[in-house]
Each structure stands twice: as structure tokens, then as C-alpha cells.
Request: fold
Amino acid sequence: MDTTYIGETEEQFAQLEEVFEKYKDVPGHLMPVLQEAQGIFGYLPYEVQKRISQALNISISEVYGVATFYSQFSLTPKGKHRISVCLGTACYVKGSDKILQRIEERLGIKNGECTPDRLFSIDSCRCVGACGLAPVVMIDDEVYGKLDVDKIDAVLDKYIAQEESGNDD
Amino acid sequence: MVTLKINGITVQAEEGTTIIEAARLAGIDIPSLCYLKDMNCIGSCRVCVVEVKGARSLVASCVYPVSEGLEVWTNTPKVRQSRQTTLELLLSEHHKKCLSCVRSSRCELQKLCKDYGVDEDRFPDTEKLQEIDLSSSYLVRDNNKCIHCMRCTAACKHQSIGVIGPRQRGHNKTIGCAFDIPLQETACVGCGQCVVACPVGALYEKSSIPQVWEAIADPEKKVVFFTAPAVRATLGEEFDLPIGTNVEKKLPGAIRRLGADAVFDMDVTADLTILEEANELVNRIKNNKPLPMFTSCCPGWVKFAEHNFPDLLPNLSTCKSPQQMFGALLKTYYCEKNNIKPENLFVVSVIPCTAKKFEVTREEMIEDVDVALTTRELAQMISGAAVNFNALADEEFDSPFDIASGAGVIFGATGGVMEAALRTAANILDGDFEVVDFEDVRGINGIRSASYNVAGIEIKVAAASGLADARKLCEEVQQGKSPYQFIEIMACPGGCINGGGQPIQKDSTRNTVPIRELRAKALYDEDASLDIRRSHESPVMETIYKEYFGSPNSEKAHKVLHTTYTPRSKF
Reply:
């Protein structure tokens, strides 16, 4: 696990300080603090957990233990565009594993990881409630259904082109 | 008090007692793997399950409180079947490399598997092997043997260190440091309380035994051993002698039979430490230097201070620990006196401690001691050399480091260093001060404090063992609220007699026998039986200062016997 500081902003850490202040006297404050911290940073890197440990006076191993126990917490950063590949039953039988594999190949990262430029991250999920459209991929809040390997290529091309042209629409 | 029945026997127990404790009152030892009284009561291993009348299913006796009229059965077919299956499931994740395991024959899991006639192969091993953490110079973590009992985690937390804990969950759960950081790079102080808490062979000291055998076999090397005060109070346990048996007289003979060229008594440099430290204390008090002064003989405590209280490092005595003083003394004074090249002298210390294995690798004093062996490692060597320990005749340590005072002996128990220092400091300040027994600082638990009026000076002292109490005393100093001039800290609860390198007692013994008290008593009894009880009255000290150092805290003494500290990260 990489523990180097990878450029969270001072503004984010200032927000984190406010969270510490807010939960200072609340019993059982570790969980809500971790949740809010993840809200601020998108994930829980070493530097953030270290500061939580210091502020709450809870050992880093305990903070880390809780952060890795619950699947709601992530230790890897999330991209500007979050790609969720549904691996639920309906999508899976329709070949979503091949779509996941294709996305991994295209972006050069594995499921659960984020590209070094922080533009894309991939996660798998279980059922987004659109089984009729299987196999389904969500990118940010957009749902893409009835996909195959060629179609997902086209979708990715669109996002990559958009980022390269600097157009945020 | 409530009355209950266990296996048909009527038992009375305090309200709030758990079934496992109540059963022990009735002479029934319910087996368990995760339970450590007052430290780890989490009901997770499921080995201690029992039947309770009216209960829907088996209950974990380590967390189930007794109540009036409760009826418990601890040994029914249902209970035995459950325990057997639990053990078989644990074994499916346990690397069953038992024959050469460091805990073989003293493994709690192994004993239970034998008792319950388990089938090792009932559930196939599913996990692939994990990497063993060999990063530190003192401790090895082999998670392939870990049974997730959490005893190490509880022990670490109890010490207020908390560098290890559970990570992930379910099948992916492992115990270790946050972010998979190697132990060496964390704020681990090396106290080894996790090792003595481990029921299996997942945690052990990094062995130095091969280097010692190699040195003994090398004709160029002169190999000298010295043994710490607390080793004599515990080594016998490894050879099935009762807890608290003092085996001082067997140590020299046993070590000679390993092939050592000389065997010395580390109590001698405990005396030396006291002469240096007591003079340093008097100097600090008289010259308004940083107070309170903390003792510095415990390397676990020193590393703890470096990580957690770097601002208090000027308050630590600059004295090296007795182990390092002995190494330095051997490589200078002893080598010069006997015309030995220091590089041909191989110095082995035998200590009750894992942190001392780290200490010998510290850059500030890397030349002093070549290898540190724990009490357990010495026992393994004695056993490996086929020495019949219990049949050995009494022998004496080798001259010139053979005679020590009672003050040196009690170094091995919490409060002992403080008492030893007071015996000498009081005598420096007031030549007529005759008190030898400073009973107020004795005792195994908590922070003990006392105040002594010596030559018109009021000296307030405190002694604590266990790093949670040490933290309290340090915070007081930081806040400017500490009333003390002199504070003794030992990292392990109870002091060196309960060190991380000491023989491991199984949980049922730990939970029912006052191990620390019995071991400490062995040392205090020896102290009381000696004619010389104050360090500065030892004839060996007189010779060493006359022939080499001149006087305590002299320039030469500072060069050889004192050291510096290094601030370290809190994480």
C-alpha cells in the first residue's frame, strides 16, 4: 500500500479540522468522522487517517481497522469520472465481466483503482436496478445499458475525447 | 454473591463474574483461546462454549455473566463436539508446521487439538501463504499461524501503543499494522507483550541462536555471556520448575556447557548503572538541570519516549542500560585488561526482553553487545545442547564480574531500579542515611509514589510499569503538574520479570496464578539474603572505578557508559 502524500489540498484538510471540531465530544465519533472525511477527500489515504488518529486520540491501527472493515470506505482515490460496472446476476450472465475486463484494459488500471491522472476510477457493483438493460455500466450518474465490448469502447472514447478537449459538459 | 451449579457442583461467585471465572473457582478449567482476564474478553474463539440450562444455544463462558440459580455444563457431548469442530475450522487456516514451531509443545492450540482428538485434515487448507514480517530486529510475525484471537492486539492496546490490529474482514482478515507498514517502521516499542500473549507460534522473537553457535565454534572468538537479573527468576519455568524458582546458581554452569568462555552477572552493571544514575540525579537536583529525571534502563520505555514524548528526552537519564553498559565495559576495560582485541570478543547478553534485541542494534551503541538472547532462546539453546538443567550442580559466575549487590538484583522488578538508586543517592547526600528497604515503591500494579527527606532535601519519586501508566506520568510532566524529581519506568507490566522475552505461560495460568508477584519475590528474597545491598558498597564497583573510570560521571565514564537519544515519529 502506497503511503505517500499524494496532493490532497489544504482546503480539504481545513474542512477535516471542522469535522473534528464538530464531533469532538460525540461518543463513538470514529464512524461519522470517517464518513465525512471520505466525503471530503473521496477516499481515506494514509495522511487523512493519520490526522484522524491524532485528532481523536485513537491508534492508527484501530482507525485503519474500521476503515478496512466496512466496504463503504475506500482506501484508493476515486476519479473525476466514477465507472461502476454491475456484476449482479443479470448483468453477469450477459457478459459484464468482459466489459469490466475491457475497461480495465483501456484505462490500464484494475477494478477498485484510479488512473494516475485521477480522471477515471473503476468499481464493480451489485445491481443498479436496471436488469432489463443488462449488462449495465454507470459512469457518474449516467446509465449505459445493453452494452458489449464495442459499445463500451465508444462510450469511453467519448469521455476521453471530452477530457482531452477540456470540455466539461 | 450468587449461587450457581457447574456440572452439578454448587459454586458461589461474585455477581458479574463470568462463567469461565466461576468455573475456575470450582477447579474446572474451561479451555479458551482468545480470553485473557481483564484484557481480552471478546468471546470470539468459541472454544470456551458451555451449555446453560434454558439457553437457546451454547454460550461463550468468557463473556456470560453468572446469575442466581444458573445451571452450567462444561463437558457434554454437544460441548465437546462444538469445540472439536471449532478447532478443526481454526486448523484449516493454520499453517500446521508444528514440528519445528517455536511454540511446539507449549502451543495452546496444539494442546487443545490433542485433548479434543481433532482431525487436522477435516477441512482442507484454503489460504495461500502470507508473507512473514521479518522487518524488525527483534520480532517476527507469521500470520500463517495466526488464529485471530486478538490477544496481541489487546496487549498492544493495553500498553497504549496500538500499532497492530485487525485489518479487512471475514476471510481476508489479518492482524498487523495499518497500511501494511512493516513493524520496523511503526511506533512499535518492541516490548514483546504481544509475544507472551500469543497462544500459538504467530509471534516470536527474531532468533539470534545461530549467530551464537557460530561464534562459539569460531576458534578466533572469545565468547562471553552475561545474564540479566530477571532471567534467574524465570528460566526454571522452561524446565518445569515452579514459577518463582531462583535458578541463579544453575545459570553459570548451564551456559558454560554451551561452550561459553566466561559467564558474568549483569547485576554488576545494574550496580554500575546505579552509581552513574544516582550521581546524575544528585547533580541534576543540585544544579537545577531538567527534572524529573526518568530512568533509562528499559529500552522499550526509551523508544516509547522517543516516539511519543520527544520533548521529554532531556529528562531521560543519559545512562546506558545495564546491558549496554556491560557490553561497553567488556569491549573497553575487560579487553584492555586481558589483552583481547575487541573484535575478537563476542558478547552475548541474556535478557528477559525483546526490546533489548532492538537496543543492541541502536546506532548510538552498536559496538557494545553482539547478540541479545531472550530467556526463551537461552532455554532453547540449553535444551538443544542436551544439558540436563535440573541436574546441574550450583556454580558461580566468573570473576571479575561475579559479585553484585542486592540493589542490582531487584532491577528486574518494577520499582527495583528506583529503590536501588535511592539506596545510593540517599547515601551520597547523607552519609549516615541507613534505610535500605524503600517499601513504598515496591508492588506490581499501578503507579507507586513516595517522598523521602534526605539531608534536608525532599525527594519525591514515582515508579510505574506498563506504558499506559508511563503515558500518564509523562503527560503530567508535559503539563507542568508533575510533583516528582525522579521517575522509574519499565515498559512491561510488572517490570522485566514479566518481559516480552520471558517464558510464556498459558492463559489459564496467567488468569489464575500471580505470576508477576511470584517472580518478583524470587528477586526480593535474594536481595534480602545478601550482605551487600547497596550498589556503591560492591567490591566490584570499587575495583572498576579505581582501575578504570576514576569516579562516577567522570569524563571517561561519560564516554563509555552514557548515551544519547533520537526523536522518532509518532506513527
Notes: Chain A has a mean pLDDT of 90. The interface with chain B takes residues 1, 3, 46, 49-50, 53-54, 59-65, 68-69 of chain A (CB under 8 Å).
